[in-house]
Amino acid sequence: QIKKIMPNIRMVCSEYSPVAVERLLKVFKEADSIVLFDMREGDWWETVDEASPTRQLYLIYRIDIELTDSEFREIFEKMADARIQNILIIICGRLTLRGLFNRLRQRLVWKIENTHHAFAGYLRTSAAFPRFWKNLYTSKELEFGGLKGFLLRRI
Fold first, then answer.
1. Residue 67: what pLDDT?
2. Nearest to 29, CA basis, from 4, 58, 54, 65
3. Can you give the pLDDT at residue 71?
4. In this predicted model, what pLDDT tens digit does every residue of 86-125 receive, in sequence order?
5. pTM for this entry
6. CA–CA–CA angle 72, 73, 75 (5° rounding)
7. 3-state SS, one letter per residue, for the chain
């Protein structure tokens, strides 16, 4: 949809799994480029268009459950060090009081029933996210079709 609305935009998609890159090459025809890139280990300088860094927008989409707090902070530090100006992060979900209660109740049921469970990722409150980019980016909280997100701008 983005390319239909803004046909002149250059869209680059990155993925850390070679298998996923191959799959995306077959199905994500709107992308101008699909590259192998690991957010944790990659060199963010390689991603910056030196001719127009202020016109680039980095979309980080629903990866928050996969990262520890320290990994999340380190990624934003690396992006800031690479002088990345604009980031749009859309989060998987937020931990609410109701959600916490439901999770604790479910764990209790599993414990009583002796059911094993697996770690499925990290959940955070909305208030927890800004500390990952504190003193690096300003942020504005937004909503995208029911998903919360933040538009970040380099300080």
1. 93
2. 4
3. 96
4. 999 999 877 677 877 887 888 888 889 998 887 767 778 8
5. 0.80
6. 65
7. CHHHHCCCCCCEEEECCHHHHHHHHHHCCCCCEEEECCCCCCCHHHHCCCCCHHHCCEEEECCHHHCCHHHHHHHHHHHHHCCCCEEEEECCCECCHHHHHHHHHHHHHHHHCCCCCCCCCCCECHHHHHHHCCCCEEEEEEEECCEEEEEEEEC
How far is 70 from 155, CA to CA, in rounded Å?
21
Indicate the residue type of 148: K
8-12, 79-83, 110-114: range with highest mean pLDDT:
79-83
